[in-house]
Amino acid sequence: MHHNPIFIRQLSYAYPDGHEALRDIHLSIAATEKVAIVGANGSGKSTFLLHLNGILLPQTGEVIIGELPIVPQNLKAVRNFVGIVFQNPDDQIFMPTVWEDITFGLMNQGLNKHDLSHRAHHAMYAVGLEPELYASRIAGNLSGGEKKRVAIAGVLAMQPQVLVLDEPSAQLDPRSRRQLINLLASLPLTQLIATHDLDLALELCSRTIVLSHGQIVYDGETAAVMNDSTFLEKHALEMPLSHCKPYCLVVDRPSDRPHPATLGEIRSRG
User: Are 206 and 247 in contact (CB under 8 A)?
Assistant: First the structure.
């Protein structure tokens, strides 16, 4: 395992219409780190993730995965090193059955039947899918949470050293979300998690990177930034729900809430 599996220096990227999605990104990710990537819509999160396994190539600067710069001749090795789980599992699951989907990448690697079966079973157990119950299931008939697990299992079967997830808790009910958090917490992999779910980030990730208008505006401890409501608001974010103090008494009302809280206040303003 590499001590610093991801190293990025002076990365910038602009789309054909001229929009600068990333500007002068510098960072290094250590092995087994769990790092949250947060920011408002349009901040550059998805564009950043797509550089990590060469779906997008750097226009300026460099991205080094393991010891390999992301250039066309290294893409096969880089994509074995970094596995990406997309926000919508329907964009990732395309084979009829769960078993066929999880083993698709392994078959393309030319694994023999024994090794293929071993790795697929191991990946399914890792995400809490019993092969005897799920292998023959029609993937399109699964729940959102089950599909997410199938997508993650398909990536884990490839044995990447880095797991990249784009909005992993999107479209999940509370139970499926909790199961996902527990799963990600148990995986001994380097993880980069792009998310609007700041409670998930707070629970899973000791480090958070905040992107705003394509630039890194914060890179540090998750707990520190999640407590800074002024900074978060400046960058179109809100504090995690777990940090928002519920109040029932007027005296407990936050000082920055000028709107009336009682019928008496409403009448006095009338």
Answer: no
According to DSSP, the β-strands at 215-221 and 68-69 are unpaired
Q: What is the pTM of this model?
A: 0.83
User: Where does residue 125 fall: left (phi above 0), alpha (psi -120 to 50 degrees), or beta otherwise?
Assistant: alpha
Distances in Å between the Cα of 43 and the Cα atoms of 125, 195, 196, 254 are 36, 12, 12, 29
**Per-residue model confidence as pLDDT tens digits over 130-170:** 999 999 999 999 998 899 999 999 999 999 999 999 998 88
Residues 6+ apart with CB under 8 A from 108: none
Q: Which of 52, 58, 76, 81 is nearest to 192 (CA)?
A: 52
Closest CA to 85 of 188, 10, 6, 158: 158
Question: Residue 108 is which amino acid?
Answer: N
CA distance 246 to 224: 20
pLDDT tens-digit series, residues 171-220: 888 888 898 899 899 988 999 999 999 999 999 999 999 999 999 999 99
φ, ψ for residue 36 (rounded to 5)? -90, 135
Q: What pLDDT is stored for residue 109 in this prediction? A: 87
Determine the Cα–Cα distance for residues 159 and 30; give it in Å rounded to an integer.
18
Q: Other CB atoms closer than 10 Å to residue 203's CB: what's the count?
A: 18
pLDDT in tens, 44-98: 999 999 999 999 999 999 999 998 999 999 999 999 999 999 988 999 999 999 9
Handedness of CA 144, 149, 152, 158 (dihedral sign): negative
Q: Evaluate the CA torsion angle 183, 188, 189, 192 in order and state its sign.
A: positive
For residue 182, what are its two tokens?
């527990």
DSSP state of 211: E
